[in-house]
Amino acid sequence: MDQRKTGNFLKTLRKEKGLTQEQLAEQFNVSDRTVSRWETGSNMPDLSILIEIADFYDVDIREIIDGERKSENMDSETKNTLKKVAEYSDAEKKILKKRVISMTAGTLIIFLFSILLDVTEGFGFIPERPCENMIDFALGLALASLVLNMLYLNGTLDKIRAWKLKHFHTRKEIQINK
Fold first, then answer.
1. C-alpha–C-alpha distance, residues 46 and 162, integer Å
2. More confident site: 13 or 74
3. Nearest to residue 157, comparing CAs of 142, 147, 166?
4. Could you report the per-residue pLDDT of 89-102, keeping only the tens digit for each?
5. Helices and strands in the chain, H and E counts
6. How far apart are CA 84 and CA 120, in angstroms?
7. pTM here?
8. How far apart are CA 19 and CA 78, in angstroms?
9. Residue range 149-174: average pLDDT?
């Protein structure tokens, strides 16, 4: 996909409708800067917005992606499938956001607990040495949680899981074939 070509096509479609970038931005609840990025090809609309843009301009999504007009229209079945894919993608993003928020909140709670222990020096109930151990443990746990958050967000945990499934699946096949 040539993003510049797609961007130029989006710009042409907007001008054909006689709209400014600001007016189009209002139509799709985005900033005019976002529209500008679409039209320069430096950024592309999300799939859900892409479907709305195709409907708005009355063009086929494939035309937008290819950056040029086609003579054939998109059939409704393909359009419905793309809408479902966009909805699925949005749902996945919401789930990811919830997971990240809960993991970050847990890390923050652990970190705040360690600071509270340090400031209050164990509330006077905990002897100094065990209190220091608890603080060190809480800070280590917070650090480990942050590292796991990073691994989760950049997809490394999914790659590890896939490797393990492949590795252990292959091992089981070898044992079965013996």
1. 27
2. 13
3. 147
4. 777 788 888 888 88
5. 8, 0
6. 54
7. 0.46
8. 28
9. 76
